[in-house]
Amino acid sequence: MISGFDTSNYTTSAAVIKDGKAYQYKQPLFVAENKRGLRQSDAVFQHTVNMPDLVRSLAADFDMKDLKAVGVSARPRNIEGSYMPCFLVGINTARTAASFAGVPLYETSHQIGHILAALYSADRLDLVDQKFIAFHVSGGTTEAVLVTPDKDELLKAQIIAESTDLKAGQAIDRTGVLLGMRFLCGPQLEKEAEKSTAAFKIRPSMQGCNCSFSGIENKVKNMIASGEQPCDIAKFALTSVCASLEEMARAVIKEHGDLPILFAGGVSGNKMIKHKLSSEFGAIFAAPEFSSDNAVGTAVYAGMRSL
């Protein structure tokens, strides 16, 4: 049995993998109405309050004597200077659990955790032994990374494309808040967009392999001021994000070759984006419950590192 922990800016997560099956314990962080995010100090406080309850639930369901290793996301990315205070809660919890149980602790990044959770969900963990392209698309990150096997880190992720301003999730959440939705807005915006019959021809703003999302927010504000229907505005925003990701995928394939493509991160749980990109590129997607922030990937990492 392997456990994992992740304390991102918006979800407190613990997980167990036993006999190949993942079990998740998650608590979304509270964001006040009309707000577009959380300060790090607020996220740390909420994680500190949430984590004992999650650990208590986990310990009630499993015999901790069976624990073999612990994994945790210790930083946003595996690059020098990558740091966010919110991950300290997960690190401290994981270190305590590993020390108490007398088992190894394996630290990785939030990004690698997302990638491994998606691979686990799609039953494609075989890709850890080869080169592939992973898109990490969320409120905090919109990047395409070239992933290669690595002896020390299991996987090494090199950024090959990214957004130059807003992240995809930010564009979605800002649209939702402008339409009166509660942050995090992705599922609500998707539901609203499904009501629309409008069609949009989007020309993404690109610089090489990189994209820009700031124009989406500006256009959304103009559409609201013009009195356009919320469902059409929602569909425009999601269609725009999808079109940009399409162009990024085309660009990185042209530059790096026709490698397998994986999509991870909360935005990749959107049905429109999943359908379009899986149809066009054969892209691999996680199941929705493994797309958003979770600790499953850190447990997968610990399990693979402890072999």
Task: Annotate the secondary structure layout.
Blueprint: E1 2-7, E2 11-18, E3 21-28, H1 40-61, E4 69-75, H2 87-101, E5 105-109, H3 110-121, E6 132-137, E7 142-150, E8 154-162, H4 168-178, H5 186-193, E9 205-207, E10 210-212, H6 214-225, H7 230-256, E11 261-264, H8 271-281, E12 284-285, H9 288-291, H10 296-305
Parallel strand pairs: 1-4, 4-5, 6-11, 11-12
Antiparallel strand pairs: 1-2, 2-3, 6-7, 7-8, 9-10
Helix pairs in contact: 1-2, 3-10, 4-6, 4-7, 5-7, 6-7, 7-8
Structure description:
- The chain is an alpha/beta fold and 307 residues long.
- Helices cover 43% and strands 23% of the residues.
- A five-stranded mixed sheet has the order 3-2-1-4-5, with helices on both faces. A five-stranded mixed sheet has the order 8-7-6-11-12, with helices on both faces. A two-stranded antiparallel ribbon has the order 9-10.
- The protein is globular, with a radius of gyration of 19 Å.
* β-sheet strand percentage: 15-25%
What structural category do the secondary elements indicate? alpha/beta
Number of helical segments with 4 or more residues: 10
The share of residues in helices is 40-55%
Largest sheet: 5 strands, mixed
Order of helices and strands: EEEHEHEHEEEHHEEHHEHEHH
Widest sheet, order of strands: 3-2-1-4-5
| Average pLDDT rating | 95
Unreliable spans: none
The best one-word shape is: globular
Total number of beta strands: 12
Whole-Å distance between the termini?
A: 12 Å
Q: From the alpha carbons, calculate the radius of gyration and give it in angstroms.
A: 19 Å
